[in-house]
Design a protein that fits this description.
Blueprint lengths: L11 H26 L19 H16 L2 H15 L6 H17 L3 H12 L6 H17 L3 H14 L5 H13 L3 H18 L5 H13 L3 H14 L3 H13 L3 H13 L6 H13 L3 H13 L7 H13 L3 H14 L4 H12 L3 H14 L5 H14 L3 H17 L5 H28 L1
Helix pairs in contact: 1-4, 1-6, 2-3, 2-4, 3-4, 4-5, 5-6, 6-7, 7-8, 8-9, 9-10, 10-11, 11-12, 12-13, 13-14, 14-15, 15-16, 16-17, 17-18, 18-19, 18-20, 19-20, 20-21, 21-22
């Protein structure tokens, strides 16, 4: 199965950083919008007291100086800007809203410096101020949820995003996605799916197209739950809306997981023929599927081409697979060369013995003898007696009777050690001796005739 099935391809942390940056800008914009008016609201005795969102002219001017220094940039300017903010923080008679905006700008500055711990501390101080506008509270809580996510404190991120949901009558799909991603990072796939499904329905109800990232999150959660049928539905939607080769590969892998291997093979075959299956492991997967579905010739062609182009490594197991494919395709001659290469790479003698068997099938007995002797010398064989029998047969076919008898005798000894039957080897020994005697008699008869 391809690894991409269970992998989120997008960088959610980078996305959260970007969204958090926008949130900081939004909160800062709110401050300047309020500060520009520099007015003070008086309470209306006939109604409840309004929350003041005004800033005094003096505070506004000092904040503006700090802002200008920080925006110029450079260590010296930023430090001076932070010093001015610190001086403002110490002033007495600040309204809660003024304090909140000072901490808000501290947070924004620390965020630009990528000091997330100080950023979060500043935002927490914003929330400690009483009687703040609800929009400011909600925005700060949402930003904290994102920052906790960046810090990989997913439980805190979940806590704060849920607080934000309590304050927000119409949440966006991005908020649901953030909550779903936090649960996903905790490998809580069931809870992750709940907000992600809400996000999906929200988008569909608007008549919009679901974002690719949302579908990817749904996909990996279904994968985590081994819910391959639902995962397949999501991947099909990804292919329809965001057609990419990787999603076809994922779909093929999903079909493999539910044992629908013909569909898996069809997808990989389509991708291969269109030149969109470039990786060696993918082509090996296709070759194995061809062998599984009794198409060895196609398997051999894929493997042979892949090795010639350097896509599939010429290593022992791959060469053995190619040899097997040619053999099953009844291309015995073509099966020899990859097996020969694999045997040369192996320290174990098994492949040499298999190569010797292939040579015997092709009546190449001298080559068979060399391979069989090499295999016996390397060792590590499961059936030495069988190897000796093949060596005896190859020597017999080349009329090397003494070598054949020696090989069959060794086969008989090894069989006895392993408590196996020696009937076959004993029969071969008798047969070779009879043939050896017959040839001797024939040679003597010819000599007498010549005299």
């Amino acid at each position: 199965m391809d690894n991409s099935i269970g992998t989120v391809k997008f960088d959610i942390t980078r996305l959260v950083k970007y969204i958090t940056f926008l949130a900081c800008l939004s909160l800062t914009a709110e401050f300047y919008s309020a500060a520009a008016s520099v007015t003070q609201e008086k309470s209306d005795e006939k109604r409840k007291v309004k929350v003041s969102v005004a800033i005094s002219e003096a505070i506004y001017k000092e904040l503006t100086k700090a802002q200008e220094l920080i925006e110029v940039g450079g260590t010296e300017n930023v430090n001076e800007g932070l010093r001015l903010l610190g001086k403002l923080e110490q002033q007495k008679r600040l309204t809660p809203y003024e304090k909140a905006q000072i901490y808000n700008y501290f947070a924004f500055t620390y965020f630009q410096m990528e000091d997330y711990k100080k950023t979060m501390n500043a935002y927490l101080k914003v929330l400690q101020q009483p009687n703040l506008p609800e929009a400011l509270i909600a925005g700060t809580i949402y930003t904290l949820a994102q920052l906790y996510f960046i810090q990989e404190d997913y439980r805190k991120a979940i806590e704060y995003i849920n607080k934000w949901f309590e304050l927000t009558p119409k949440p966006t799909e991005n908020a649901y996605m953030l909550l779903g991603q936090a649960y996903y990072q905790l490998e809580d796939y069931r809870n992750s799916l709940v907000p992600l499904k809400k996000a999906y329905l929200l988008v569909k109800e608007r008549g919009d197209i679901p974002k690719e990232d949302l579908l990817l999150l749904l996909r990996v959660n279904y994968f985590g739950l081994n819910d391959h049928p639902n995962m397949i539905k999501v991947v099909k939607e990804l292919i329809t809306l965001y057609p990419k080769t990787e999603y076809w590969v994922t779909l093929g892998g999903a079909y493999s997981e539910i044992k629908q291997l013909k569909k898996n093979m069809s997808i990989f075959e389509l991708l291969y023929e269109s030149g969109e299956l470039p990786r060696g492991n993918q082509q090996l997967n296709l070759a194995n599927l061809y062998l599984l579905h009794e198409a060895p010739y196609k398997a051999a062609l894929v493997l042979d081409k892949g090795m010639k182009h350097g896509v599939i490594k010429k290593e022992g197991r791959n060469l053995r697979l190619l040899s097997q494919a040619w053999l099953q395709a009844q291309e015995s001659q073509k099966s020899v060369e990859p097996l020969k290469q694999a045997a040369a790479m192996s320290k174990n003698g098994e492949l040499d013995i298999r190569l010797g068997q292939a040579y015997i099938n092709l009546d190449r007995y001298d080559d068979a003898i060399k391979s069989l002797e090499s295999g016996l010398k390397k060792g590590g064989l499961k059936r030495r007696d069988s190897a000796y029998i093949m060596l005896g047969m190859a020597n017999f076919e080349t009329r090397k009777f003494n070598a054949a008898l020696k090989a069959f005798t060794n086969a008989s000894k090894d069989a006895r050690k392993q408590k196996r039957s020696t009937k076959s080897t004993d029969q071969w020994i008798i047969y070779v001796r009879n043939e050896q005697n017959r040839e001797k008699q024939l040679e003597e008869s010819l000599k007498r005739k010549r005299r």
